[in-house]
Amino acid sequence: MKPYESLLAVAKFYLGPAAESFLARQCQLVLKIEAPLIAKAQFKDLAHAVEVSAVRFLDRAKADEMAKRIAALSIRSRMIELRQAQPCAWTAA
Amino acid sequence: MHNLEAQKRIKGYLTDVKRVGAQTARETYLDEATFEIHEIESLADRAVRIAPDAEKRAKSRKIVSSVGAYETALRQAVEAAEKGKPDAEVSAANAAYDASAEQLSENAEDGEAAGRDAAQTSQDDIVSTSRRAVWLSVGFSLLGLLLGITMSYALAKAILTPVDHLREVAENVSMGNLDISVRRYSEDEIGDLADSFSRMVAAVKYFRLETIEAVEANAPKNPL
Fold it and tell me: What's the pTM value of the predicted model, to 2 decimals?
């Protein structure tokens, strides 16, 4: 799954049809890139921006939750990358 | 009581035996008397088995033992009459028979009283047991009813509270109030519905803000 697709899946859970437009706008404003081109390393910065801007149309708890899930995507992706680069003993066996 | 009546009938047979004197008649009467004696024994045995306490059991046992003595005395009296023994022996046998008959009669009367007491006690026990069973049934029925009502109320509340909340949210949104939070009450279909509703409200809010911003950006500047 591409980074943008996993990001869109999270955003759609909270925003439904507005998710694509919201992500496009946030990526343009904060990261200065087109949304589909986002990299996993940029998820954390995007999560900070989402935490602030999503409060305008989501309640505080849900905005925080969405930001945390976006940040978690980057951590999970990093763990997968590390595991692929250096498998642990029992996985290799 | 059955025992007492049977014993009286036996006494009657013996009187007949003494009076008639004919061999065939004596045998017939003796057979009938023996049959009645065995009836008494079996009844007394049953009374021993079902006696509610030791005292009543002892009274029934007395009947059993005196029935045995009575049967022996009866046979001896009949034999003495049949074999044409001397009058002294016949009189002695008859006297022994009368004594055993008297003893049986007394024991039978005691047994009758004991039996009456036992019957009364059993009846009282049955009445009290039935009454207790009725109250227990009523109690359990009421408890079941109460439990049913409580569970129905709790179930209705668990279903109606989230549905009522969603109805309230829908009413607010329909009136244009989008600043309302949708709460997820439970992890079930109603909870999923609440999530969908929340998503819908957020999207509407977002598009409305976007539209307002677009309109403001394209609005002609006030020359003043």
Answer: 0.53
